[in-house]
Amino acid sequence: MLIENEHLILRTLTAKELEMLTCLVSSETVYRYEPTFLAERQYAPEKALEVLSRLDLEKDRQCILGIFLKKDPDTMVGLAELYDYKTNGKTISIGYRLSEKYWGQGIATLTVN
């Protein structure tokens, strides 16, 4: 899955992002207030990447995409979680997790928009 706007790219993760996913998931600061059942924290990083990349918004009613800045499209800055999708296309819930380095830059707002 791919979603783009003028500032961001949200897309399915690939094996290239394994190291960045591992770094994000290992941050206790990022995950301090997050529930423990999140897919990326339930499994070893390799398995988490496999699980996340298979989630399908239509079939599973959720997906988790990597967040990338258009100005640096090779660096994952966080994860966007789209869930509770209603097939009529009128409602969806959105969550996000950003690497600390990118906090306070408006990336979460851009992601949700």
Helix-and-strand structural type:
alpha+beta
Task: Tell me roughly what share of residues is in helical segments.
Answer: 25-40%
Kindly report how far apart the N and C termini lie: 17 Å
What fraction of residues sit in β-strands?
25-35%
Major sheet description: 5 strands, antiparallel
Query: Average pLDDT across residues?
Result: 90
Please provide a written account of the structure.
Strand 1 (2-4) and strand 2 (8-11) form a beta hairpin. The radius of gyration is 13 Å and the shape is globular. It is 28% helix and 29% strand. The model has no long low-confidence stretch (mean pLDDT 90). The chain contains 5 helices and 5 strands. Strands 1-2-3-4-5 form a 5-stranded antiparallel β-sheet. The protein has 113 residues and is α+β, with helices and mostly antiparallel strands. It has helices spanning 18-25, 39-42, 45-54, 57-60, 107-112; strands at 2-4, 8-11, 62-69, 72-83, 93-98.
